[in-house]
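Journal club side-thread
Mid-discussion, someone asked how the predicted structure for our own chain would compare to the paper's figures. Pasting it here so we can look after the session.
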Amino acid sequence: MSNFIGIRHEDKYVMERRAPLTPKHVERLIKNKKLDFVIQTSEKRVFTDEEYIKAGAKIAKDLKKCSVIFGVKEMPESFFEEDKTYIFFSHVIKGQVYNMPMLKKMMEMKCNLIDYERVVDEQGKRLIFFGRYAGLAGMINSLWSMGLRLKEAGYKTPFSQIKQAHHYTSLAEVREAISAVGQEIAEKGMPEELRPFTVAFTGYGNVSQGAQEILGLLPVKEISPEKLLYLKRRSKLPDNLIYKVIFKEEHLVEPLDENEEFELHEYYSSPEKFKSSFEKYIPHIDMLINCIYWDSRYPRLVTKNYLEKLFCDGTPKLKVIGDISCDVNGSVECTEKGTEIEDPIFVYHPDSRTHTMGHKGDGVLVMAVDILPSELPRDSSAGFADVLINYVKAISDCDFNEDFLTLDLPNAIKSALILHRGELTPHFKYLEEHLASEQIKVKGYNE
């Protein structure tokens, strides 16, 4: 088989314009590592075919010549070829039902699958990710959403100057635009009826840090969750500050047993012993930016039942939820769908438990774009490739015909190898159960 490395055209979403490696990174790999690249032609990718040609790569309609293929999002079943190696976000590690047919097809074709999400260091910390860019774009979109919502309610604020993230050409342009908004708030303040204006962040990882980076372009004062509860509308409060609150696990949940103290390790090992304690803060929040990891084992932060009660008491302070985590019916239960860049926001109506797309109507606005980094495609691709470039040659040089135990791969990449020659590797044998539930018989490695 050839040693050509392929970069696939992304086709899962209309506005997916990212690439795992930019032309500059490809050029470095060609010059310094003597690798050969074939780029699948694309009319929408943020980097043009011509940029890759200048970098020294070949352009083709398909990647038949390539033995190793890099992508970003899931690939259709018809794309896979026997004995090849694929590297992308497969979204199978939680046993996602909708991707089990794809995984089954890869097994039938005896493919190797490396998932970026599982490229981790010895402490289990992810090494290759778009998370910061999801936070950046998510915060931009949330501020834009707030501008729309406040204008609809009759308030004149500088937020109305902010655009949806993908309308900016670069992060530099974003920073300049939002810094100008920040300057106006600092000089002219916020409407009295909106003070104190509060923004809450759930989580403190890469996603949250990216979102906070954007909010930090405005005049911000950070306060504790405890202080938020006592931050009342008072004339002596400055009118030109936005209050930021970061919520960690101990603020979000509490033990079911009232006699127990919160213990972080126990929460992650036995989440069923905890309940949400977040509801008491919600009436004090204007904008909620949700950045936490969540699955069905954990308590929800915002439930539909709670929102119904909240809105029964009149129009609450909460106006916008930027659900960057975007778990459908998850930690924020009213996130009823992941949205597309072309139609990014909806208003959830607690009384009828329905939603309508756009920014109008009674209820709370939800921003839930599920490919946020693609709203900043050039910057996010470059940041992602800065790390990925360090592993490309090792993956390309690896002889995947060898036994799993003797594969010559960096530990971080080997830990992300879900399939080896079509078989589940030891750390991913648990996926047999998810595949079996689809009445799929699979073969996996022994422990």
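Post-session note: The first helix runs from residue 23 to 33.
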